[in-house]
Amino acid sequence: MRYRQTIAVLALVGLFVALYLWLHALGYGGAIKCGASGGCEIVQTSQWATFLGLPVAFYGVVGYLTMLVVAIVAVRPAARAEAGWSKLLALLATIGFGFTLYLTYLELFVIHAICRWCIGSAVIITLIWVVSLLALRSPATRTDRAASPLLPDPRA
Amino acid sequence: MNRFYVVLTALAVVLGVSVFALLKTGGGAPAAAAGPPPTVADDGFRGYTLGQGTAPIEIVEYLDFECPVCATFATVQMPTIKEQLINTGRVRWKFRDYPLPIHKYSRFAAHAAQCAGAQGRYFEMQDQLFAHHQWAQTGKDPSSLFRSLAQAAGADVKAYDACMESGKYAQRIEYSRQEGEQLQVDGTPTFFANGTKLFTSLRRLPSSDDFKAVVDSITAHSPPKPVARPAHH
């Protein structure tokens, strides 16, 4: 259960990282905050910053939001015993991780610029992917009493 | 409420406020570099030039960095022109600024190129500005991007910042624009070969073949070079 909660927290952080990049891509706010090394603007204005006509960050928002919602649903006591949620989270995380690998490759070897926000997102999705794999190996029926006080105590 | 949901909600609030604060703050294009200068002065500069000084034909290009056609020309046609005409010593190519008033960040981009040029990085910066031309379509303040591009072009960022902040080359750019106006430049890019305006009736972007034809024609109509004879003593 801790795994699903961890995924929810990570997805929430990733959601706001992607949200910031998406809003910036839509023209909200001034120059992107990227540290002294720059690079975010180069990445954000490159031809690879859009995918199928939409900013790449938009897909990040959708992806993280989906993982967040699924993780929150999966944390509910009723869903706790259902292993399908862990499989779904692992599937979503794998898709996100694969897409991130492709984007990181573009940054390093094609655009030749590093965006710190993108790296931050890459770290988050990698963590989500690892945790989702751990969740798959973990018995779905195992409960964490501290995190789920609503569950009836089987010893009672 | 479950402690997990409380933590998640609190985190969402903190992150939301952080993103809002990040979006509220942002830099801006220095006015001195972005707008037309109050006065104009000739500093004697007549454009950055590619090619050999001895080339018999000089082509002058009046360009606007925000103009998409200029970007297409620079990225699609120019590599072939460099290879066939400039590197072979047939042509030298001069770049002059002609920022169009319809473009918000043209002067600013021209100034960024001049500031990189002051560090010997004009052509690298020009390549960067045209290669990452999406900035011209977004309408967003490109100051942070240009700074990154200057860095990618090999310019020292501190010197670049100081140059942009001071608007050091604003008058030079305006002088170039006025010069183009006197030569009846009516759009960008506009080309002159040895002072003659080119492609006045062409309704499309000239290609490298069009320039080759122009250069061939000028060369064919030029008087042959006098043959050097041994000196008599």
What is the count of helical runs of chain A?
Answer: 5
> How would you classify the helix and strand content of chain A by structural class?
mainly alpha
Rg of chain B, nearest Å: 23 Å
Question: Which percent range describes the beta-strand content of chain A?
Answer: under 5%
How many distinct beta strands of chain B?
5
Mean pLDDT of chain A: 82
- Look at the helices and sheets of chain B and give the structural class: alpha+beta
What attributes characterize this protein structure?
heterodimer; A: 156 residues; mainly alpha; 5 helices; elongated; disordered C terminus; B: 233 residues; alpha+beta; 5-stranded mixed sheet; 51% helix
Structure report:
The complex is a heterodimer of chains A (156) and B (233). With 156 residues, chain A is mainly α. Chain A contains 5 helices and 2 strands, in the order ααββααα. Chain A has helices spanning 2-25, 40-44, 56-75, 84-111, 116-137; strands at residues 50-51, 54-55. In chain A, strands 1-2 form a two-stranded antiparallel ribbon. By secondary structure, chain B is an alpha+beta fold. In chain B, strands 1-3-2-4-5 form a 5-stranded mixed beta sheet. At the A-B interface, helix 1 and helix 2 of A face helix 1 and helix 7 of B.
